[in-house]
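The record is kept unedited without comment:

——
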Amino acid sequence: MQNQSEAALPTMAADDDEHAVAQPSGLAALAIGASRHVALLAAWVAMCGSLFFSDVLGWPPCLLCWYQRICMYPLAAILAVGIVRRDRAVHAYVLPLALLGACISTYHYLLLKTRWLPAPPCAEGGVPCTVDYLHINGLPFVNIPFLALVAFIIIAVSMLISTADGGAATDDDDAPRRAGRWQRPAAVAIIVLVVGATLVLAQLYRAANA
């Protein structure tokens, strides 16, 4: 019996070592911990930016822009609630919308930059989906669908990164509590800063064009 116990010890130690290697640490752990907040920042900047374009600059959204908004706006709320509730499965709700939005943005971008794809039928009197409001000198490839596509990609990649700690975190009941101490205040700070910056820019723009 003693020999069997001694023989089992190296196996148990090897399993512990293997589990320890699987846990992220250092910069990897920091990237995983911040990934949900990066996605939150991208979603809120995209949402507030689209509202700035339409409500402040007066650029009415087209049909495809509305479809992209339908995908983006819920992400801002889902990510905020997921971080506050420390939901490690939030990627399961976010990824489908982010990938769908990325597909629509890609289609809209190619529609503006090429003649490969047919334009969708827009409502009578609506804005054509081939209208390109944004023109930046020196960056001809940047337009509104491009910005939306970048935001969707950032959100999707961040969610994939956030899944890296799913297995390790479940073995330590105190790990979510320790890791979550800064997550809620950081999420609130991101939302307040983005919304505040958008309101300030809106006031400055209106004052300059009054």
Observations:
- The chain has one domain: 30-208.
- The CA atoms of residues 36 and 135 lie 31 Å apart.
- Residues 27-56 form the longest helix (30 residues).
